[in-house]
Amino acid sequence: MQTSQQGHGRHVIVIGGGVVGLTSAWWLLEAGFRVTLLERAPEVGRGASYRNGGQLSYRYVAPLADAGVPLKALQWLFEADGPLRFRPEADWRQWRWLAAFLANCNGVSNRRTTAKLLELGELSRRKMAQLAVHVPLSEFGWREAGKLVLYRTPALFDAAAARAGAGQVVTGAKAAALEPALAGLAPQLAGGIFNPGEAVADCSAFCAALARRLPKHPRFEGVVHGRAVSLFTEDSRVVGVETADGWLQGDDYVLAAGIQSRDLAATAGIHLPLYPLKGYSLTAPIRPHDLAPAISVTDFEHKTLYARIGDSLRVAAMVDMVGDNPALDARRVAGLTRRARESMPAAADYERIEAWAGLRPATPNSAPLLGRTRHANLWLNVGHGPLGFTFACGTASILADLMRGNAPPITLDFIAWRA
Fold this sequence. Notes:
GO terms for molecular function: D-amino-acid dehydrogenase activity. This is D-amino acid dehydrogenase 2. By secondary structure, the protein is of the alpha/beta class. The protein has a domain at 74-105 and 143-198 and 275-362. Helix content is 30%, strand content 26%. The protein contains 10 helices and 20 strands. The strands form 4 sheets. Strands 4, 5, 6, 7, 14, 15, 16, 17 and 18 form a 9-stranded mixed sheet that branches. The protein has a 6-stranded mixed sheet with strand order 9-2-1-13-20-19, with helices on both faces. A hairpin with a 4-residue loop joins β15 (296-299) and β16. The longest helix has 25 residues, at 107-131. The two termini are 32 Å apart. 49% of the residues are buried. Mean pLDDT is 93; it is low at 1-5.
């Protein structure tokens, strides 16, 4: 990764110390900028990055908005352990987001967004490989496990298999042969799609490893732990960010604070189409006699993924549209635990699970928001939804290109921010 001086020493305040903010800080440092990182928590990587699913889905993406999803969503609402929960709010942002989401629930929009996200995924895969020179993959449990997406309904499986470049199409029996942990589930499967190049890793450990490197960079100005309250603007420029502990000022400002970016942007008169999709995960220890999956597995219709990360099994699922409350819902945790026990009963010690919930900042079409706002020195790198770990290196490198005035390596349709 070559260091450019095109940043000319400009001082950038990166707001957000999750995986997107940390990678943004790194690529901006490498591009010649001076960087201060502002993070509200005492430690970095403790928000949506902390216990995510761990899958790095570079070659397989499935935007939530698609034809037929509204009808499926209605069905899920009546399932005891269904993947969706919805609570209406007296908040115009929820309803505006839902209207835009429904407008994207068609095959044309889904195919366009999928194609762009696959481009972004390939770029991010290459950038992660470059970063590994500085942050060894072994420090965050990176493993090229491959990814197996399972389908229970023949029609859905046939549609997935017909997509160009979908991956290796396998029967249910072949899926169980590839991954013995699926032996008991095989009779319920119509088939699966296998992509051998996909990876898993510990996002929290990745954040910690990258945070250890930042202070060694000669242009890094440090981490400020404090809650950003508002942005102040004058003459179409941001002149400072107010925190709970005082002011911070720089030449440029980057919003990479997950769902908190929505409220901060609003203080500068910018309304971001973001909504917090609450997701859950379980982390269960794997004992010597357990049959944990070696391959990363996604149960498509149950919207549940399974990934072995080190000596633990990570199970992640669910989309709760219930506002910005990150608290654990015991019923949802119990439902996810039941689902894991039914699908992979011998995979881990489910009596010792650690449950987690996080707010994933999602856009209506599942594509992140990236680029300059109407304020000349305010930039966005937000809206990655459940794919923050997957896309973080790619969007960080694009952000650095844009802020230097360079053309990005891919076109930014469906990604670039448009006020």
